[in-house]
Amino acid sequence: xxxxxxxxxxxxxxxxxxxxxxxxxxxxxxxxxxxxxxxxxxxxxxxxxxxxxxxxxxxxxxxxxxxxxxxxxxxxxxxxxxxxxxxxxxxxxxxxxxxxxxxxxxxxxxxxxxxxxxxxxxxxxxxxxxxxxxxxxxxxxxxxxxxxxxxxxxxxxxxxxxxxxxxxxxxxxxxxxxxxxxxxxx
Length: 186
Prior knowledge:
This protein folds into 2 domains: 2-132, UDP N-Acetylglucosamine Acyltransferase, domain 1, CATH 2.160.10.10; 147-180, no CATH class. By secondary structure, it is α/β, with parallel strands linked by helices. The strands form 5 sheets. It has a 6-stranded mixed sheet. 29% of the residues lie in helices and 26% in strands. The chain contains 5 helices and 18 strands.
């Protein structure tokens, strides 16, 4: 039964994205789009996602805003462009008229209402740049040196044992850690 449910989900997802592409969504190479992502179907032709981007689960790209329609009879529309090599975090909302510069990260739960410059890390509601990509990576390299790294070959969801889960839970009770290895595509 589970295989049938998975097959139906895959079929619906493939059909959803085929319709978006047929209606003008521009999608680069090596783009990873996770479950629950919503791309504005009525204005998908206004949305461009360039090469090597990741859209985490439940990201929403909305290229129109009908909030004033009842009062003014108009709907605001704007392009959304996500430049190459960006990571858009879980449950992020990107609104009309936004360009996210190349090599940028948008943190989980952000509401992006304005442009994000290249090589930036942005977070919050509304999303604001909190540091450069270079500073963000340097900070995490330094913290990683003092933290424990869990390797994907032993600690991935598909391989982890009860003993390894306890080990990880115990360490992460009072510390931050890092996972290393390939992140599986869905």
